[in-house]
Amino acid sequence: IFWKQNGLNNMNLYNYYMQMRQEFINKIRSTSGYLDKYGLHSSADAINGMWLNKSETNYLFSKWYNDSINICSFSPFNMFYIAQSIGILNEMDYLLAALDLCWGDSVRLGATTFWEVYSPQWNHFLSK
């Protein structure tokens, strides 16, 4: 627990924030069709926040993460958060495939850092 690891050991404050967190989660879940309002990036944020249950993560994964057209963020930096969420779900085959699709070609074209923007479709004319 963060509080104990950092020497704070303030369980009252910890309990207060955990109760507040649960109230926000309950409020989100009380909204009809709340998962349908999530896109790829908000799905990644929710998964990274580790507050979704298994059926919620399965729904978002099947809706957003099986789409090879949209899995790559237009900003390669933001792909990190998508990759992190795939790792949290322990979908390592998907993670490796997504990283190769989204970052692999830029690395093969000589990138040593994230490019500001990039799309795998650009390879058709960049490599010529």
Descriptive report:
With 128 residues, this protein is mostly helical. Helices cover 59% and strands 0% of the residues. The chain is built from 7 helices and no strands. Helix 5 runs antiparallel to helix 6. It is globular, with a radius of gyration of 18 Å. The N and C termini lie far apart (52 Å). The model has no long low-confidence stretch (mean pLDDT 87).
Blueprint of the fold:
Layout: H1 2-5, H2 11-29, H3 40-48, H4 54-65, H5 79-88, H6 92-108, H7 123-126
Query: Which value, in Å, is the CA radius of gyration?
Result: 18 Å
Number of distinct beta strands? 0
Helix content: 55-70%
Globular, elongated, flat, extended or rod-shaped: what is the shape? globular
The arrangement of helices and strands along the chain is HHHHHHH
Largest sheet: none
Return the structural class: mainly alpha
Supply the number of helical segments.
Answer: 7
Query: Percent of residues in beta strands?
Result: under 5%
Low-confidence stretches: none
Mean pLDDT: 87
Q: Give the N-to-C terminal Cα separation.
A: 52 Å
List keywords for this structure.
mainly alpha
